[in-house]
Amino acid sequence: MTDVLEPRAIGRDLLRRDGGLKVRGTAVYADETPVPEGAGPPAYCRVVTSTVARGRIVDLDTTAAEALDGVQRVLTHATAEHLASTEDRELAVLQDAEVGFRGQIVAAVLADSDEIAREAAGLVEVRYAAEATNAELRAELRADRTDLYTPEKVNAGHETDTATGNMDDALALAPVTLERTYRTPMQHNNPMEPHATSALWTGTHLTLWDSTQSVHRVRDTVVQVFGLAPEQVRVVCPYVGGGFGSKGTPHANVVTAALAARALPGRLVRFALTRQEMFALAGHRTPTIQRLQLAAERDGTLRGIAIDVVEQTSKVKEFAEQTGVPTRTMYAAPNRRTTHRLAALDVPVPSWMRAPGECPGMFGPEVALDELAVELGIDPVELRIRNEPEVDPETGRPFSSRNLVACLRAGAERFGWADRDPEPGTRRVDGWWVGTGVAASVYPTIRMTKSTATVRREGDRYVGRIGAADLGTGAYTVLPQILADALGVDEARVDVLLGDTDLPEASVAGGSSGTTTWGSALVEAAREFRDEFGDDPREGDEAAADVPPNPAEQEYVMSAFGAQFAEVRVHADTGEVRVPRLYGVFACGRIVNPRTARSQLLGGMTMGLGMALHEQSLLDPRTGAVVNHDLAEYHVPANADVADLQAHWLDEDDPYVNPMGSKGVGEIGIVGTAAAVANAAWHATGVRVRDLPITLDKVLG
Amino acid sequence: MDPELTLTVDGATHTTTCDTRTSLLDLLRRRLGITSPKKGCDHGQCGACTVLVDGRRVLSCLTLAVTRDGAEVVTAAGIDGPLPQAFQEADGFQCGYCTPGQVCSAAGVLDEHARGWPSVVTADLTDTPALDDAEIAERMSGNLCRCGAYKGIREAVRTAAGAATR
User: Fold this and answer.
1) Residue B155 and residue A96: Cα distance in Å, rounded?
2) Does residue A564 form part of some domain?
3) A single Gene Ontology molecular function, please (chain A) (predicted)?
4) N or C: which end of chain A has fewer CB within 10 A?
């Protein structure tokens, strides 16, 4: 048990502290960093990217570009500095003539204006020797590829494969079995702020104003890649225009900005990816192929559950999405199997996107459960309740708290599920087929092991310091609430400074771990502070602390759960799909700030709606290019796509997770949404869509 | 020779020269250091660069600066009144990057509605439509928000319009 804080500021519905700046547009993002005193006029960087998926540069002519008035440098693999470490191939920018994917940076132009840099980039001529193998084979993910391989581990250190009991026997013996294949497409994070860096090299020190979810991770990466000492590199990021994972790990653009700055000492170099470039250089979510097998008794009791996942990675660097992991924890069954196989393709490197693993990995299972419910004639809410495990099914460890059943019941009540007629394709209103569907949500409660915070008395205020990030999550508002309760003072007297490597080292804003991790460090620092200085500290008194270990993490499985209910309308003539109602009920520990937490849950559900109806990156297997690489063709939800959207939560007291009692709310909202919508679309039309997104051609088919 | 132009931005007059290829967005951000309007796509697809030019909302990334000599530009930094507070109260944003464009667009919506302009979802074209959820959603759909703050954005616009809540 941890010592849970008495909530005073925690739980209050406070306005965002950075709201005034954001609504006026005066919060400063990376590309807007003012030119520092003493620096020369800013320079602008534009890049040239490869037009072949795999091959070698045989000629690169920069003469015309360099002749243009206002061009300062053209960096290529022949002219760029040699990096100290090229171990991470994604970050080995301009180091050799090899091309590993279409859209890779092959030259960088630095000029006195953005317009000149862009014109010059267009004048760089590149000839490639494209590799003459079967192009289609290289970029297309299929489950029958002969070159699939088994990664050593999947993301977050999870086992690649797991098995309990004997799934084959379960399938042979059970009275009811179901085997289906589900697909989720390649997707892109597309934060509204393109990945951007303003960079300044003074000759000895490098400062990067970078749009990132972790200033310390960027610093550590740049230190390693360039062979610098940590004290030579500072990374600053007060505001982030969204990330959703794509800014959780530094990509090639950060290295390019640093290369550019080092080529022009004393000048602030600005480098922002274009929206189009982001589709190759800022990471993507892998497409997944999920084969689900269920074995059940006639009363719905699962005898077996299995998921076999096939997904892609890049030949440049491995990224193994943990898609099968949620199946390990969701439902009770004595026989179980999860596997992951990868195809290494000539594509850009996949990366983190909101709820990696859980988000794609809860589509197949939650639609399969719905299909089983139909086959058995059991209500899908009831089927889930009947398979609720008492302990974590794979490890046998107890849950610190698990309220999936309560979420299902509360959601059903709010949504008006009780009167539902299970027959599909029978309700037609004003030319629209109407249906409803349900799916479960899950996301692990993650606390990073390493973060440090300090607390200092300054005037009549208390100032917390931690190099964390607020990408719209509310950290600037929520962390002072936590620190105030830990100090036992009024929240209005507390500040918490974020977003700078000059502050104590913080973990990445990812894995829904921010509040839990940074909050734990701040609470520990506050305890040290009070122990040392009592209730009447003097000016400048300061204490520091790391995230303390939590032995309960070894004893308990910690996760947030939820249930989502969707109403779908499908136009009988056009097949247009709308979602007039989408309700989520979540059990995610104690809510620190209802206003910002609700926004996070609604935001996750909105992105889940996009996954259900709109989002897919169309990779041309001949060229390795994402052909719909902008926001006109890669559709994300717009205002009118979102109708009656509601997020609710249950009061959940979990004494084991951390002193705040929080479980994280940034990702669970996207988990299960697409399955709920797909299940409702089936109920509306009788057409079962097993590959996302649910477009009109599929429901008409 | 780069041509000279004069703009009024949020009440302040600026006379400057610019490359004829420069968008109004880049002129504001790069040349004048006015970074309230944001660049999300540079192709008129996301709405983050929305500003008011002579009272009308425009996408500044699709507007060549030299075509707007003498114009009066208003960015979110120049918008007072109930809108900015309503966005905060409704938590109509998270990361804040699309927000200045949303605020400018909302100001445009309020003005267009006050003039009686219909939208594609307006049922009765002979009367001024009520600014209900569907009207606001339709009129605000040119401004993407990846954080998914649409519900709060609608609430903010509704509050600012003084319309009764649903």
Assistant:
1) 53
2) yes
3) oxidoreductase activity
4) N
B14 touches chain A (CB under 8 A): no
Would an 8 Å CB–CB cutoff place A131 in contact with chain B?
Answer: no
Residue-wise pLDDT for A480-522, tens only, equals 999 999 999 999 999 999 999 999 999 999 999 999 999 999 9
Q: What is the mean pLDDT of residues A326-349?
A: 97
Task: Determine the Cα–Cα distance for residues A269 and A208; give it in Å rounded to an integer.
Answer: 10
Determine if the peptide bond prior to A444 is cis (ω within 30°). no
ipTM over cut 0.90: yes
Of B19, B138, B153, the CB nearest to A113: B19
pLDDT exceeds 90 at position A139: no
Plot region of A34 (φ>0 → left; ψ -120 to 50 → alpha; else → beta): beta
* Range list of H helices, A74-157: 114-123, 135-139
B140·A632 Cβ contact <8 A: no
Determine the pLDDT at residue A39: 92
Residue A239 to residue B96, Cβ atoms within 8 A: yes
Domain end residue (candidates: A231, A263, A281): A281
* Residues B95, A471: C-beta atoms closer than 8 Å: yes
- Per-residue pLDDT for B164 more than 50? no
| Contact (CB<8Å) A242/B97 | yes
Residue B56 three-state SS: strand
Catalytic residue numbers of A read 667
B-contacting residues in A 162-201 (Cβ below 8 Å): 190-194
Q: What is the DSSP string of A635-686?
A: ----GGG--EEEEEE-----SSS-TT-B---SSGGGSSHHHHHHHHHHHHHS
Which two structure tokens, joined as six digits, stand for A357? 């693993």
Residue-range domain boundaries for chain B: 4-77, 80-161
- Structural domain that includes position A649: 153-187+284-446+555-700
- What pLDDT shows up at residue A340? 98
Considering only residues 25 to 54 of chain B, which have any Cβ-Cβ distance to chain A shorter than 8 Å? Answer: 26, 29-30, 33, 35-43, 45-46, 48
Point out the residue among A21, A114, A642 whose CB comes nearest to the CB of B150: A642
Best B16, B95, B98, B158 residue to mutate vs chain A (most A CBs within 10 Å):
B95
Tens of pLDDT, residue by residue over A154-165, are 999 999 999 999
The superfamily in CATH containing domain B4-77 is Beta-grasp domain (3.10.20.30)
Pick the CATH number of B80-161 from 1.10.10.60, 1.10.150.80, 1.10.150.120, 3.40.1360.10: 1.10.150.120
* Final residue in a domain of this structure, among A518, A549, A580: A549
If one counts the domains in chain A, the total is 3
Q: A218 with A199, same domain? A: yes
Residue A549 has pLDDT above 80, yes or no: yes
A604 in any annotated domain: yes
User: How far apart, in whole angstroms, are the C-alpha atoms of residue A550 and residue A400?
Assistant: 13
| Claim to verify: residue A488 and residue A371 sit in the same structural domain | no
- The answer on A423 and A453 residing in a single domain is no
Q: Is A608 on the interface with B (CB under 8 A)?
A: no
For B65-97, write each residue's pLDDT tens digit.
999 999 999 999 999 999 999 999 999 999 999
B166 in contact with A, Cβ within 8 Å: no
Tokens standing for A438? 């349900």
Q: Are residues A453 and A431 in the same domain?
A: no
